[in-house]
Design a protein that fits this description.
By secondary structure, the chain is mostly helical. Among the domains are: 42 residues; 151 residues, no CATH class. The chain has a two-stranded antiparallel sheet with strand order 1-2. It contains nine helices and two strands; from the N terminus they run αααααααααββ.
Amino acid sequence: MRRHTGRESARLARALDATASRRTRDTAVDELVSLTEKLSRIDLDLDGRPDPVFRAETRQRMLALAEQRAATDRGATHRAPAEPRLHLPAWGRRVAVAVAVFCAVLATAGLLTLLSRDALPGDSLYAVKRGAEQVQLSLTWDRDERGFVLLQFAETRLDEVTALVQAPVALAAGVPGTPLAAGSDSADAVVATLAEMDRQTAAGISLLTTSAVDRSDEATLEILPTWAKGQQALLGALVTKMTQSEQDRARVSLTLLEQVEQRARLLELALPCECLDDRPGDDLGPVPCESCQPVPGGRPGGSPTPTPPGPGAGPTGSPTQPVPSPTRISPTS
């Protein structure tokens, strides 16, 4: 902005004086005079700060605006609809937690059962394997199916004996894959497993023979000798690889399998006999009376009476002959 010279200031003063006395003015001069009069009425603080009165009034207006805004916000909050929330009763929460825990336990048990399928005696998962078998057996109500399930378990025990004899491992020490020394816990595991196999074999055979006699079921009695021969063939092939204590226990199991085969054949021939109505029983089920047993050489439609072991008999007590292929039984047989 350029500065006015003294001459121009004098002209402005004379013009202002002239406008006060005259009624007609120039438009530009009127605007300038009006602005000058307004500026002359403004009181300015010499320090450059706003007037205290002005500051107080401004502060009051700002406080009033703030209170008005806060009241508006509170009203909007009260009018806003509440968000829907899911409220479960106390029993519902307990049920949900129980279901979640049950699912977790079920999944864990299923995983452990799957991992324990190949566990051997002494392994940390072997107890899980046997526990799963007990659960399966307890859920089987039909007598025939229960008998076949027990025979399946006996087959599993023989598979475990085969694994222990062919490739013994230090499972009892908890170090899978470490070879066992002679006379260590491997022999004890084989003997105990064979004893459990015999117990399951006798229990299954007893259920099946009793049911077969009650229903005159020849089909079941025809299956049992075949199954017993298969078990004999598998166990007889292991005898030469066993220690002396294991061989002694294996011969007991082979004798039991021979008795199973003979009992099934004799009961099949004795089904028409009335003496079976008041039949006695033992660990293998019904015992056929002597009057119903076939004469030497057999009778029409029957099988010859098994002869006692003689010289030249194999490990099973029967004459040496080609070993038949093993036959396994399933619950659907």
